[in-house]
Amino acid sequence: MKFAVLGTGSVGRAIADRLDELGHDVLIGTRDPDATVARAAADDMGNPTYAEWAAQHPRVRLGSFAEAAGQAEVVVNATNGGASLDVLALAGADALAGKVIIDIANPLDFSQGMPPTLFVKDTDSLAEQIQRAFPSARVVKTLNTMTAALMVRPAELAEGSSVFVSGDDPQAKAVVTALLQEFGHSDVIDLGNLSSARGTEMLLPVWLRLWAALGTPMFNFKIVR
Ligand code: NAP
Q1: Which of 61, 79, 67, 60 is closest to 20 using CA atoms?
Q2: Of 66, 59, 62, which Cα lies nearest the Cα of 18?
Q3: Neighbours of 207 (CB within 10 A)
């Protein structure tokens, strides 16, 4: 399947790496491809530069957000939550029409320091904002409740854990669920329509405190029943 992965950070790279490994066609979207390739400094998470990462992933192409979305069957939103609506506008409403958007972004506001707050919550969500802005796209919220490495390789934890999906379009959720299973997720919980993304986005304050308390991001929620 042809994927656009919008975002060059930890999440975009993890998703692109795994999709490529699974034999999918991947074009990563970024604001300015030349600037992204030329960016010298590694980020403060210790990730390699984009150029170093790209050298290890010769099949994964890089283009503008519009180039990536235009050629894709499925679009992954792995961008900064505060920029996601702008990024998707750059991708273009026509390019997104009818397509599944896998929305992994979290509505985190770091402007007041750590820990971040949520810039939308309770009665709305980033996923719903995206769906309203691009009504003919089919938004499915998932994977935002775990660290990037576990999104694509959940078996790195010693025991199974859970992943949530929220969306208004059952067929889009079926496409995403199949992909999650390809990634190795065995407990995919359909929470219902897209308004259920309010809850998974609001797990982030808990997730961030767990990260601080445990000293590692390598943990996940497991729904025991
Ligand atoms: P990030 O640093 O949050 O986002 C990186 C991407 O956002 C880049 O591609 C960047 O574009 C784009 N971006 C940033 N500011 C922009 C702006 N003003 N205009 C347009 N584009 C902008 O990367 P991340 O850590 O991989 O996270 C991606 C998303 O996943 C976030 O919403 C995050 O909350 C969520 N998430 C992350 C994790 C994790 O483990 N890191 C876990 C769960 C959910 P360029 O490529 O042009 O620089």
Answers
A1: 60
A2: 59
A3: 18
Q: Where are the beta strands (DSSP E) in the chain?
A: 2-6, 25-30, 61-64, 74-77, 100-103, 108-109, 117-118, 138-142, 162-167, 187-192
> For the segment 162-175, what is each residue's pLDDT rounded down to a tens digit?
999 999 999 999 99
Ligand 1 center–CA 225 separation, angstroms: 34
Closest CA to 224 of 173, 159, 177: 159
Can you tell me which atom of ligand 1 is nearest the CA of 77? 29
Q: What integer pLDDT is reported at residue 167 of this predicted model?
A: 99
Instruction: Decide: 146 and 220 in contact? Cβ < 8 Å.
Output: yes
Could you write out the three-class secondary structure of 115-152?
Answer: CCEECCCCCCCHHHHHHHHCCCCEEEEECCCCCHHHHH
Ranges of residues in the chain whose predicted pLDDT is under 70: 42-44
Q: Which atom of ligand 1 is nearest to the CA of 10?
A: 26
